[in-house]
Amino acid sequence: MQVYPNRFNQELQRGLKPCYLLFGDEPQQKFSMIEALREKAKAEGFTERTVFVADSGFSWSQLIEATQSLSLFASQQLIELELPTGKPGTEGSQTLQAIAPNLGQDILLLVHGPRIGKDVQKGKWFKVLDDIGVHSICYPLEGNNLNSWIQQELQQAKLNADAACVRMIADMCEGNMLAASQEIQKLSLVFAGQTITPEQVEAAIVDQSRFNVFQLVDVMLGGEQQRCIKMLYRLESEGIEPNILIWALVREWQTLTQLQDQLKSGQQIQWMKLGIWKNRQAVYQSALNRLTPAQMKHIRQELEQADLAFKQYTVVRPYVKLAHLCMLFMGVPLGHLPVME
């Protein structure tokens, strides 16, 4: 059964399930759920906790033994199994299916790891454990969802804040929910039980936005100019190689060209064949609606020039040129301005 991260605590209050599958690349939500499960399990008598990491040296027989024996000092056990790749492999899959009937009254299993795809969720081991338990996938929050989460965190920290404060925290910590949580905890120590102002928030926290290239691409395709430039600034400050971004932009140009060719020939867009999942189709559609074939041709020319310059010369301000390229993808009329000096 799937439960969204913001509903996880409510699910725990209904009673413990034999198994919990928690995955995702967003650490704050995942760590919060793991900690909440640990506390709930301990309160319910699961005082023994055994931790395994299924790395290259892990023996799956250890997990089998753990489910078949309890210590002399504890009658109930919480077993935590981390899957560093998100996949248990053939032996692990068979083992997890085999131990499923042993889970329940005395043994509670937590399996966690990084972000997983639909292929993992369709695996036999995942389905067997999900049938008797709960699974939750953590994704970074954006927009209104992020604002709602920040507001909830502020309330739990006994802080009163208006919408301006929430937006400021979201803007300064967007893409890094763990940092946002830490900053709210810091605010609660200074202004416990008080109503905080935007000035107090600005003085107390620093800009801790953390983005990756894939997030930048989605924002660019969606045409969000201000966010795109902010992300570029953060990526530059984090030392991301400009060539990585050029590679990403070239890849997106190729994908958009394929999509335009399908539309031009009267075909229905084959999203999945191009590896575009449903949650990203809207941003590609936005770019398709915005960019003409002539604009795509101009972008290709500018990408070729920039790629050549980045590889053969020392570009003084590469991120200025990257910003120019991103603006072209967003349909900003900069054709009269040269990308390369």
From TrEMBL:
Its EC number is 2.7.7.7. GO terms for molecular function: DNA binding; DNA-directed DNA polymerase activity. One of its GO terms (biological process) is DNA-templated DNA replication. One of its GO terms (cellular component) is DNA polymerase III complex. It comes from the Bacteria. Residues 214-334 form the DNA polymerase III subunit delta C-terminal domain. CDD domains: HLD_clamp_pol_III_delta. Residues 20-130 form the DNA polymerase III delta N-terminal domain. Keywords: DNA replication, DNA-directed DNA polymerase, Nucleotidyltransferase, Transferase. It is an enzyme of class 2 (transferase). It catalyses: DNA(n) + a 2'-deoxyribonucleoside 5'-triphosphate = DNA(n+1) + diphosphate. Belongs to the DNA polymerase HolA subunit family. This is DNA polymerase III subunit delta.
